[in-house]
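User: Here's a structure from my thesis project, written as structure tokens. My advisor, Dr. K., wants to see whether a designed sequence matches the one we expressed. Can you design one independently, without my sequence as a hint?
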């Protein structure tokens, strides 16, 4: 009886093992329907938005300025150093009135938010960086 069961199970186990081995590596798993391609385009993770919102709130709290909200901003992700009117070598961040921040790196975010907040609250974005917030809030 055991030999009949072994005779039946051995080929079944062999075929199962071979099927498992053939499914590893090698072929295009997307064609097999295992992994679907993502939609084309450029996307950001929600953690970037959270980072930007937190930085905005921190800058606004630090300055004490009341006007301006994160939701009013247009944020444009740029290459790390992009052409701008301020520096011959380019910028890694730029505020463009009335509500656009061009951002080459998230590390300059609060600095650009300060320009926006100053513009909204005083009518002047302070391109010369004379406001004490540029030293105290970044």
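Assistant: Designed independently from the structure alone:
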């Amino acid at each position: 009886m055991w030999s009949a069961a072994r005779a039946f199970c051995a080929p079944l186990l062999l075929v199962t093992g071979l099927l498992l081995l053939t499914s590893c590596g090698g072929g295009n798993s997307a064609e097999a329907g295992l992994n679907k391609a993502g939609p084309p385009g450029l996307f950001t993770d929600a953690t970037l938005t959270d980072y930007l919102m937190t930085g905005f709130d921190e800058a606004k709290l630090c300055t004490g300025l009341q006007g301006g909200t994160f939701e009013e901003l247009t944020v444009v992700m740029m290459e790390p150093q992009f052409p701008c009117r301020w520096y011959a070598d380019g910028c890694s961040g730029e505020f463009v009135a009335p509500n656009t921040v061009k951002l080459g790196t998230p590390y300059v975010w609060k600095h650009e938010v300060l320009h926006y907040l100053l513009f909204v609250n005083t009518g002047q974005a302070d391109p010369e960086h004379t406001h004490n917030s540029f030293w105290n809030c970044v």
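When you compare it with your expressed construct, this may help: The helical segments are 2-22, 46-63, 109-122, 133-136.
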